[in-house]
């Protein structure tokens, strides 16, 4: 028998396929995990109001005392809507824009002293990854377990072609 016939098949990334029906559950899980960041942050802004107000003022955010309750409400409401899949793409765009704005204000690591720079770089990169998650949802919709209109969700077949 030739050697090539006795070797086990080499593993490749294409061997990683999602079992039938699991994609919708994975999309729901991803949406919920992204949303938790914002819902918890919004609740913390209420519970730890004085801390966050001082933090915003330290960064020179204008009208901090008016913006903070609005930011808390925004994160809780839009985060919950995103988790439930209500206007999923719109929520993803709004949370993307908020994350982009906050990352540029609070985690501009290049402006920090050297001893704080690594921690801020890690936070900056974490937020970049979060932005990537939102881009994925914007591109693919909320999935089957989304309360959004069905036409807002793009299902794809194994080859990546849109399925109607």
Q: What percent of the residues sit in helical stretches (DSSP H or I)? A: 55-70%
Name the poorly predicted regions.
none
How many individual helices? 6
Query: If you average the pLDDT, what whole number results?
Result: 88
What fraction of residues sit in β-strands? under 5%
Q: State the secondary-structure class.
A: mainly alpha
Distance between the ends:
48 Å
Per-chain topology:
Blueprint: H1 3-6, H2 22-47, H3 49-58, H4 64-84, H5 88-106, H6 114-140, E1 155-156, E2 162-163
Antiparallel strand pairs: 1-2
Question: Can you walk through the features of this model?
Answer:
It is a single chain. Strands 1-2 form a two-stranded antiparallel sheet. It is built from 6 helices and 2 strands, in the order ααααααββ. The protein is flat, with a radius of gyration of 21 Å. With 164 residues, the protein is mainly alpha-helical. The model has no long low-confidence stretch (mean pLDDT 88).
Keywords:
6 helices, mainly alpha, 2 strands, 164 residues, flat
TL;DR of this structure?
This protein is an all-alpha fold.
């Amino acid at each position: 028998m030739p050697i090539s016939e006795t070797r086990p098949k080499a593993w490749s990334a294409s061997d990683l396929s999602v079992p039938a029906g699991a994609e919708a559950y994975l999309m729901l899980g991803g949406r919920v995990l992204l949303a938790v960041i914002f819902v918890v942050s919004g609740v913390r802004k209420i519970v730890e109001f004085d801390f966050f107000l001082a933090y915003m003022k330290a960064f020179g955010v204008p009208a901090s005392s008016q913006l903070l309750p609005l930011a808390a409400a925004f994160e809780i409401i839009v985060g919950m809507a995103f988790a439930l899949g209500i206007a999923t793409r719109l929520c993803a765009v709004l949370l993307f824009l908020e994350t982009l704005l906050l990352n540029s204000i609070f985690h501009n690591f290049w402006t920090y002293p050297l001893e704080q720079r690594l921690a801020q770089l890690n936070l900056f990169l974490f937020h970049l990854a979060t932005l990537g998650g939102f881009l994925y949802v914007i591109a693919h919709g909320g999935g089957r377990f989304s309360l959004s209109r069905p036409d807002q969700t793009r299902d794809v077949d194994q080859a990546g072609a849109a399925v109607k």
